[in-house]
Amino acid sequence: MAMIDAHVHVFASVSNEFPRQVSGNTPGEREATAEQLLETMAACGVEKAVLVQIGGEELEQHAYLRHCLKSYPDRFRGIGLVADLEHPEEQMDRLASDGGIIGFRLSSIGGERDPLAPMDVTSFDTYKIWKHAAEKDYVIWLYPPAAENHCVPFLIDAFPELTVVFNHMAYCPGEGSFSHDEMGRPHIDLPNPPVTRYNTLGLYQYPNVCVKLSGQYAFSKEPYPYPDLAGWHGALLRTFGADRLMWATDSPWILEEPGYENLTRVIDAQLPDLSEEQRALIMGGTARARLFSRG
Amino acid sequence: MTGPTSEERAFWEEHGYLEFEHALAGDQLQRLQRAFKQAVTDCKPDWLEGIARGTAPAAHFDIPNPFQRDDVFIDIVDYPAWYPYLMDFADGELTILAPQVRTLPAQPISYVGWHGDVPQTNPLHMKVQIYVEDVPADGGAFAYVPGSHKPDAGPCPRPRLLDAMPGRKVFPGKAGDAILFNSYGWHTSMINTTSTARKSIILIYEKWSEGKVSPDRYASIADRLTTPARRRLFCLDTMHAA
């Protein structure tokens, strides 16, 4: 069975050819290249991966992502970012025009923060992105903050045909919950299971909503294989089913600890009672059907 | 206070629920509505902060510690419209586990799918759902599958859409209406497609069992639990004398 890693990041060191933003864990000289990733994947039997843009929302900051997608069209699909919420259509179409970028990641919604207030999706800051994605069949790659997660069902209900992939087990970072651990990896301190589940589990009724099983290292309060998250993995499986779950590593943040190879076994530890069919779907089949059929 | 008639008892045993129309009315209902509204006003800022921090659910807003907030929330626990029924069904040995003073925002999904609360091995578990304001069928109304409380009901189905549940009964109601149900049975909150939040109170009871509720749980309101019956209901006193 060929595995597909549904969420990784690649980036080159900063150059004129590949400009990008820098941050604490992506300093200008650091690189995590597609070639390094492919070598790691090959050693672990992983065939394909979804490259998620890092290093900026501007069109030119996608240069390395586009380069990788063009260089390895059979191995990668890409998820881009959008800079201009007022006029997102042109950037979305330009990024998708090469065929490799199949969707766009959102880490905010721009919606009403009071769940008791009237909800008008057309007033949400990201509404035009959702609308254009629905029109063009782009994927929405979703990592919403806890403060806005209750807005998501309204958008999905408005565009039920959209494929929406919740990132990182559908955890939604809360204000003040984000930090970096001693290895410089993202760490998000939230209750387990997440209280945002009351606004996410019910989305199983929309057949195009999927969840990525990734980022365990950032949300678990225990070392690999993160046994405290097994209950939540089970809940996601029972609710959404294996044909809507996708395994991913969030490389490169995990390369040192717990290591890429270990993460190819994390689903076996979290969901030891999977059937072969379910395992095949989570480890690649779902991503193949939902993502690699595009572009 | 009167308990169930033989017809009501037979209906309860067969279907697992009873409806009480206008169970709360007049001054008592207004008192409850005022306390509910005040509690929401007082607690909403903390709720919104909790949502933003990822520590409070946005899908429902429960008032923390309602018994400490207003005596009306204590008074409804043994309210005559339903208390004699609960006592009868629990063979006179009843415990209040928790109140949920709950506001349910309108949204296109339910915060909870069809489920039973406890397995049949649990002591009899019952809830009273009290509508504080009118709840139309599309306003997040309570729904139940009559008969699903029985031991031979099997596993709870999980239809993709809530209203695809076979045999479901939806309970729209007026302010002051209440539904008593056996929570072995499958139930949910239907989707609230209106623009108005549902306001209800869910009282959770169980047939008393040794050690289930610590005497400390309600110690902070002990001075307001003055009758022997209330002290037993809130587990301040033991159910069985030594």
Task: Explain this structure.
- The complex is a heterodimer of chains A (295) and B (242).
- Chain A is α/β, with parallel strands linked by helices and 295 residues long.
- Chain A has helices spanning 34-44, 63-71, 89-96, 127-136, 152-158, 197-200, 216-219, 230-240, 260-263, 266-270, 276-290, and strands spanning 3-8, 46-52, 76-80, 101-106, 139-142, 164-166, 178-180, 186-188, 209-213, 245-247.
- The longest helix of chain A is centred in the last third of the chain and has 15 residues, at 276-290.
- Chain A is globular, with a radius of gyration of 18 Å.
- Chain A starts with a strand and ends in a 5-residue tail after the last helix.
- Chain B is an alpha+beta fold and 242 residues long.
- Chain B has helices at residues 6-15, 26-53, 66-69, 71-75, 83-89, 228-233; strands at 17-20, 61-62, 94-104, 125-131, 142-144, 169-171, 178-182, 187-189, 198-207.
- In chain B, strands 1-7-4-9-3-2 form a six-stranded antiparallel beta sheet. Chain B has a three-stranded antiparallel beta sheet with strand order 6-5-8, with no helix packed on it.
- Classes of the chains: A alpha/beta (295), B alpha+beta (242).
- At the A-B interface, helix 5 and helix 6 of A face helix 2 of B.
